[in-house]
Every structure is written in C-alpha cells, then in structure tokens.
Amino acid sequence: MELADRAVGLLLTLTSLSIFTYYTFWVIILPFVDSDHFIQQYFLPQEYAILIPVFAGVVLLCFLCIFIGSVMLKSKKKKA
Amino acid sequence: MEGQQKNKEKNKYSIIVPTYNERLNIALLVYLIFKHLRDVDFEIIVVDDGSPDGTQEIIKQLQQVYGEDRILLRARPRKLGLGTAYVHGLKHASGNFVVIMDADLSHHPKYLPSFIKKQLDTGASIVTGTRYVKGGGVHGWNLMRKLTSRGANVLAHTLLWPGVSDLTGSFRLYKKSVLEDVISSCVSKGYVFQMEMIVRASRKGYHIEEVPITFVDRVYGSSKLGGSEIVEYLKGLAYLLLQWSAIRNISSDK
Amino acid sequence: MKHIIKIITLLVAISAFWIGLLQASVIPSSHTWLLPIYFIVSLGCYGLLMVGVGLMRFPTCPQEALLLQQDIVEAKDFLKQKGVDVGGSD
C-alpha cells in the first residue's frame, strides 16, 4: 500500500520530467537542427507542438468545469 | 534560562477544542493533555455544539476529576461552524496563549510541549503544526487522499506563496492577541478557514514557526473528502487571491 | 497589495520580455510564438513534478497509530477508575 503510493509518486515525477525534456527538445532545440537530420524523424512537425498542449489544456479545463459544475449542482440539490 | 523559566510560569495556555459528538474522544483527549502538560498553567475550553450523544455530561464528569477551573464547558445550542466556535471559545479564554486542536485524537497532545518550547525559544506569534516535514507524518490516508492533499498544497504554494508548509492543518498555538486580530478578518468555513487564518497571519507579517506533528486520521468516525470539499478549497484559494486588498486597506486606514 | 496583483505583475513582466523578443527578432518569430505555450507546459510539468515528489516522499507514521491505541487503553483505564463513563460508544 505504502510502497504502491510511492511508486505512483515516482511515476508522476518521471512522467513530468520526460514530458518536460521531450517538449524542451522539441520546441527549443529542434528548430536549430537541420531539417534533414535523422533526429527529425522522431518528432512530429512543429505545429503539433502547439496543437497537442492546447488540446490537452482545453480537455483539462472542460473536465474541471464539468467537475465543479456537477458538484455545485449536487450541493444545491441537497440544500433544496 | 532563568528568564525563560519565569516566562513559563507566567504564561497561561488556553486550549480550545470544538466538539460535536465526541464523547469518548474528548475524555481521552483531556486525559492525554493532563498527562503531557504537567508543569504548565493551562485550561481546556470545550466548545460543544449541542452534541446529542452526551458529550456535555462527560465534560461535567471530567470537571469532577480535574477541576472546573481547568476544564471549561462553553456550549452552544446547535451546530454553528468551526470558525465561530473558536471565536466563542476565545471570548472565554483567560490565558495569554491559545492552542486550537481537534477533539478527534488526530492531534496528539504529546506535541503540546514542543509547541510551547518552540514559542518560548523563538518568541513567535504563531506556532503551527506541520505534517509534511521530517519528523511529521500522516497515518491512515489512501492514495486518493494523499494525491488531493499534495495537489492542493502545490496549488496553494504556487498561487499564494504563504511561507508555511502545512496550510490546512489545524493544530496551532497562537498568541491570544494575534488570534483575536486574525480571526476577526476571517470569513471562510471548514478547513479552508485554517488556510485563511495562516495566510492572513503571514501576510500581516506575524512571525510564524513550525513544529513537526503526526496526524492519525480519525480513530473513531471517518473523515470525508469529496468533491464538495475540493470545490470549497478552490473557492477559498480564489477568495484569498482576490480578497486581501480590501481588508488591508481597512486596517491601514485605522 | 492584492496578492493577485503580484502574480499579474509577474505575468506582465514575462509577457513584456516575450514581446521584446518578438520585436527584436533575435530568434526566428515562429519560434518565439511557441514560448508562451512552452511556459504553460513547463508550469504544468512543474506542478506534476511537485505532486509526484510530494507523493514519493509523503511522510507516514504507522507506529503512531499503535502508540495512540496504547494511549487510548491507558486513558480508558484511568478514566474508568475515576468514574468517568467511557464505555459504550465504540
């Protein structure tokens, strides 16, 4: 139980670090690398560097709004 | 050293414990407080919100054992909320320091001496118990509870910069005048109230110190953390982000 | 000062810096356009990292629960002797 929780923590840490590293590489370093360089084939085109985070952000925001909305509705019902 | 000793004799600590249906826990708590605070002048103020389970009868029995001047029962007719319970208890407090703690034994009285010692050593206005440092800890939380608590903490620290590691803990020692000052400007309810208190105090520039405590989640009964608590917390955060200036202006106008 | 103003000031300072970069075109502008998103992604990663680290190093105290149980037994014994009614409710 204890160990499993720590493992989840480790997983979150690693996920966040790898996302950060990958994204940094993608956005900051890649534009300076020649477009025919072999490393380019491991990355999607630049426009996805915008599209994916924006999409994820919108999904997250929607989720949050739905969550807050549903909780508020529930508490209102309880009061009534 | 001698001065400190003198201080220790002069100081009086009022321990305010709000209760609702805690008839067993309050008896155990009182015993443990008396066990761990031997050479300190203190009183326990129980603010009972009209518990139907006979909490008040137990208090009266305890008064027989420990003395009516050490345990004060200041009941209220019905459930009126945590924040106002402290205000109510504070009115009857005769000590120059006030300790607030929960009655459900998640806060162990054995840490009271370390609160008092920390205050005497540093002269702090507030000593707050923190669960998230070395020597502290939490028992009885599942993964979800840990996740939300960590998430809430990161969110609050990123947005509010409070300078205190445990915002929602409620095991604290205040100088009485400081508590009176801070509590008068607080409006939140539930455990957001604890966060508001410490954030306001830190913004008012009071000296805050921390001591590690352990937190054993509700031995009897169960603590709840559902969607509505999370939403309340988010509201509290937004409130604290926005509300401060008005209060500050009023107090600086004086 | 309102606390939110501090945060907004910080954000404005960062945006000013960014607009400066955009104007000065030290680096290609298509590249500069990505920076705000990069900033937000970094912030998200930071949050996730802090939660992860916090969870990994979450201090727990199973021994405290045992000690508390002992204290409870001790307290009950004492209070029973003194005639306080501690039975029943659990």
Describe the structure.
- Chain A: The chain crosses the membrane at residues 7-29, 49-73.
- Chain A: Belongs to the DPM2 family.
- Chain A: It comes from Ziziphus jujuba var. spinosa.
- By secondary structure, chain A is mainly α.
- Chain A has helices at 2-29, 46-79.
- The longest helix of chain A has 34 residues, at 46-79.
- By secondary structure, chain B is of the alpha/beta class.
- In chain B, the strands form two sheets. Chain B has a seven-stranded mixed sheet with strand order 3-2-1-4-7-5-8. Chain B has a two-stranded parallel sheet with strand order 6-9.
- With 90 residues, chain C is mainly α.
- Chain C has helices at 3-24, 29-56, 62-81.
- In chain C, α1 runs antiparallel to α2.
- Chain B binds chain C through residues 23-24, 27-28, 31-32, 35, 53, 57-58, 61-62, 64-65, 105, 108, 131-134, 136-140, 146-147, 150-151, 153-155, 157-161, 203, 214, 216, 219-220, 240-242, 244-245, 248, and chain C through 1-5, 7, 46-47, 50-51, 54-55, 58-62, 64-65, 68-69, 71-72, 75-76, 78-79, 82-86, 89-90.
Give the biggest beta sheet of chain B: 7 strands, mixed
Q: Identify the overall geometry of chain C.
A: rod-shaped
Ends of chain C: how far apart? 51 Å
What Rg of chain C do the Cα atoms give? 28 Å
- Stretches of chain C where pLDDT falls below 50 for ≥5 residues? none
Counting H and I runs of at least 4 residues, what is the number of helices of chain B?
9
Q: What's the architecture of chain B in CATH terms? A: Alpha-Beta Complex
User: Can you identify the CATH superfamily of chain B?
Assistant: Spore Coat Polysaccharide Biosynthesis Protein SpsA, Chain A
Strand content of chain C: under 5%
> How many β strands of chain C by DSSP?
0
**Would you state the CATH class of chain B?**
Alpha Beta
Residue-averaged pLDDT of chain B = 85
CATH fold naming of chain B: Spore Coat Polysaccharide Biosynthesis Protein SpsA, Chain A
